């Protein structure tokens, strides 16, 4: 049975987090360059509101409109982009990226990152839904079914149907809960990860996992099946040859973002996740001196897990053994501990061992980042090829599980200027 352990508080928190994410995503595009946004005065706003009940003066057009120097929104609303733009996502436009390609570092997968065109090439019309768009099916049914016409892609089902990502079923997309690495369904795979992190005695939740970052999430079935354990997952994947996988995830009602591990830090603060998960995520963690593993190190909480289910962890052919050796050396230099390697998965723990990190830094095995500036905003920051030393006071500070976690004051908040205020005492 799937019990949805979502209390309303958690729901609100997630909603706020999503709003903040959406907000930060769009501020980059809409308000990025100090140009003024002209909004109609309140009198004309109420006029347009009243005209929506009567329809005489509603004059919006379907027309491709680009951003002008000072954005102006007409009194009666905005223009609607042509239907062919129904898949348009700001700063993820394949034809613009093709134009940029000669300037991008493809060996670092820079082409998968966000690239915003110059101001005058940014659309400024409302993106229309596809033809025959229907109100999305509600959770929990949407975990398994969404309307076929709401996500007008077929390529993913064609190439990934055999791995049980998604199948077409008449008017619906059906998600059997599989993935490239877990063809037989995410629940069994998740149980195995629980066994591996607890010596067969518990599940991921009892291993202390509450927040997960899923790298290269596909249609995000992993996240969907962690919910019954009350584990919250942020999933991301690039908009790549598989078309937009994230659109399936979002249509299912699973939180996800278009993003990639390439040249920039992910937009999350240091120590955000109890687990970073990659199953066949097609990220070359061993390349470039392990700079992407160092980003994972930044994102992981002390004693957090890095779960790696990919061919180098289990195959002996091609150059997989060499890649595995590189991963072992890089993770050892960062003082991670390989705690389990079985079936097709390897799991490391980001151990809290300050002296090990200092020692490896002194021996030039790894770079230690300059004076800890982990309160700096990670949005659009280049990756750093170094690891941080933990604050000494944090060494013994392991967060408890929820609900206690929601109300404790973590001292790191102090560094970003958040001071606890005790308004009243319940006792
Ligand atoms: C909108 O306009 C149409 C045709 O002009 C009219 O039949 C309809 O009643 C109007 N709707 C409202 C809500 O005024
Ligand atoms: C791409 O990045 C790699 C790794 O940092 C670097 O060695 C290479 O010179 C870069 N290539 C270009 C074309 O900038
Ligand atoms: C889906 O896209 C195709 C072209 O890519 C188009 O012909 C078709 O009308 C679209 N279907 C819907 C439901 O929007
Ligand atoms: C996990 O461990 C339990 C108890 O030891 C066992 O019954 C179960 O089959 C294991 N699950 C997997 C997927 O290995
Ligand atoms: C599992 O057992 C091994 C060997 O007894 C031990 O070293 C390891 O710390 C245990 N791991 C967990 C998560 O309890
Ligand atoms: C890993 O480290 C060992 C010992 O320092 C070294 O001999 C080996 O060449 C390294 N392997 C790779 C693939 O870098
Ligand atoms: C920390 O690292 C040092 C140096 O690698 C090692 O000697 C020590 O045993 C480690 N401590 C723990 C608690 O693992």
TrEMBL record:
GO terms for biological process: methylation. SUPFAM superfamilies: S-adenosyl-L-methionine-dependent methyltransferases. GO terms for molecular function: methyltransferase activity. One of its GO terms (cellular component) is membrane. It comes from the Eukaryota. Its EC number is 2.1.1.-. Keywords: Glycoprotein, Membrane, Methyltransferase, Signal-anchor, Transferase, Transmembrane, Transmembrane helix. InterPro entries: Put_SAM_MeTrfase, SAM-dependent_MTases_sf. Signal peptide: none annotated. Its main location: membrane. It is found in: Endomembrane system; Membrane. It is a single-pass type II membrane protein. The chain crosses the membrane at residues 12-32. PANTHER family: METHYLTRANSFERASE PMT6-RELATED (PTHR10108:SF37), SAM-DEPENDENT METHYLTRANSFERASE (PTHR10108). Belongs to the methyltransferase superfamily. This is Methyltransferase. The lineage of its organism: Eukaryota, Viridiplantae, Streptophyta, Embryophyta, Tracheophyta.
């Amino acid at each position: 049975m799937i019990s949805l352990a979502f209390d309303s508080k958690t729901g609100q928190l997630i909603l706020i987090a999503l709003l903040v994410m959406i907000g930060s995503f769009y501020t980059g595009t809409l308000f990025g360059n100090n140009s003024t946004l002209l909004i109609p005065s309140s009198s004309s706003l109420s006029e347009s509101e009243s005209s929506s009940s009567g329809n005489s003066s509603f004059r919006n057009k379907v027309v491709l409109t680009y951003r002008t120097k000072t954005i102006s929104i007409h009194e009666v609303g905005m223009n609607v982009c042509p239907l062919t733009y129904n898949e348009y996502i700001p700063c993820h436009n394949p034809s613009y990226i093709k134009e940029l390609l000669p300037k991008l570092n493809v060996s670092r997968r820079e082409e998968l990152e966000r690239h915003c065109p110059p101001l005058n090439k940014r659309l400024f019309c409302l993106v229309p839904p596809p033809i025959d768009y229907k109100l999305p099916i509600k959770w929990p049914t949407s975990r398994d079914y969404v309307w076929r016409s709401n996500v007008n892609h077929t390529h993913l089902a064609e190439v990934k149907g055999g791995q049980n990502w998604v199948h077409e079923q008449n008017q619906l997309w059906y998600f059997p809960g599989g993935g490239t690495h877990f063809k037989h369904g995410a629940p069994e795979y998740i149980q195995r990860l629980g066994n591996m992190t607890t010596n067969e005695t518990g599940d991921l939740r009892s291993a202390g996992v509450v927040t997960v970052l899923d790298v290269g999430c596909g249609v995000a079935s992993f996240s969907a099946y962690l919910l019954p354990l009350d584990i919250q997952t942020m999933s991301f994947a690039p908009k790549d040859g598989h078309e937009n996988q994230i659109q399936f995830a979002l249509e299912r009602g699973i939180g996800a973002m278009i993003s990639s591990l390439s040249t920039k830090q992910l937009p999350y603060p240091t120590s955000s996740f109890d687990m970073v998960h990659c199953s066949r995520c097609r990220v070359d963690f061993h390349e470039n001196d392990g700079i992407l593993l160092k980003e994972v190190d930044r994102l992981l909480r002390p004693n957090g897990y890095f779960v790696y289910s990919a061919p180098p962890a289990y195959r002996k052919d091609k150059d997989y053994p060499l890649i595995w050796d590189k991963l072992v050396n890089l993770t050892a230099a960062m003082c991670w501990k390989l705690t389990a390697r079985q079936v097709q998965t390897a799991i490391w723990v980001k151990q809290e061992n300050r002296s090990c990190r200092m020692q490896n830094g002194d021996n030039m095995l790894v770079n230690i980042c300059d004076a800890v500036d982990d309160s700096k905003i990670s949005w659009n920051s280049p990756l750093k090829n170094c690891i941080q030393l933990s604050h000494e006071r944090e060494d013994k500070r392991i967060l408890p599980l929820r609900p206690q976690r929601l109300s404790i004051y973590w001292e790191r908040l102090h560094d970003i200027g958040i001071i606890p205020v005790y308004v009243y005492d319940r006792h």
